[in-house]
Each structure stands twice: as structure tokens, then as C-alpha cells.
Description:
This protein is mainly α. The protein has 6 helices and 3 strands, in the order H-H-H-E-H-H-E-E-H. Strand 2 and strand 3 (82-87) form a beta hairpin.
Amino acid sequence: MNRNEVRDALFPNCPVRNVLSRIGDKWSMLVLFTLEANQNQRFKELQRNIPDISQKMLTATLKMLESDRLVHREAFPEIPPRVEYSLTDKGESLLPLIDNLLVWASENMNDIMESRQRYLLK
């Protein structure tokens, strides 16, 4: 059982904890933002655009986002096989909320860091 499955099992009825445990990890937001900037990407394109993500982690993240219907996976019956990933409408609707969180974090980061320093010096 992986970490997200454990969190989902611990908080199955709490929408905030449940959703944040899925999208608040290190890679999910980066995948979502990358798909927003470069729609309909193949796996290798995503991997190139997020250079420090491993193949295993990208695969797991895409599967998780697909299972939540934030990302759409389309396989084309070609030789060689081609698979493309894109944001769903639900995934696109999430991005403005994440953008607001990033703006808030940027505006408050200095104050938060100063508060942490003062707290440590007590």
C-alpha cells in the first residue's frame, strides 16, 4: 500500500484532506502545470519538461491523476503505439485555485519565513 492509499484510507470522508493528499505531493502540480502549458503531451515530452522526475514517479503520478479524472490518457492504435496526456475539464478547473494558492504563498513567504525564525529564537 502506498502513501496516498494510506491517506485515503485514514480520511475517506474528508474532501479537503483526501484531495490535498492527491494533488499536494511533489509532482502532481508540476504535471498539471506542464500539461496546461503544453497540451496533449506524450510521456517522453512530459519527462523532458519535468527533468528531475523519474520514469517510475511520472508513471505513478499520471495514473493517480487519471484515476481522479484530472488527466486524460488517449492511446492511438498506431505502430509504434502513441499515447498522449491532456488535462480534463476537471483538471483545468483546478488550476485557477492552485494559481491563487501560489500567489498567496508568494505574497506571504517572506513574512512566514521571518515568523519561523522568530519562533526558533524563542
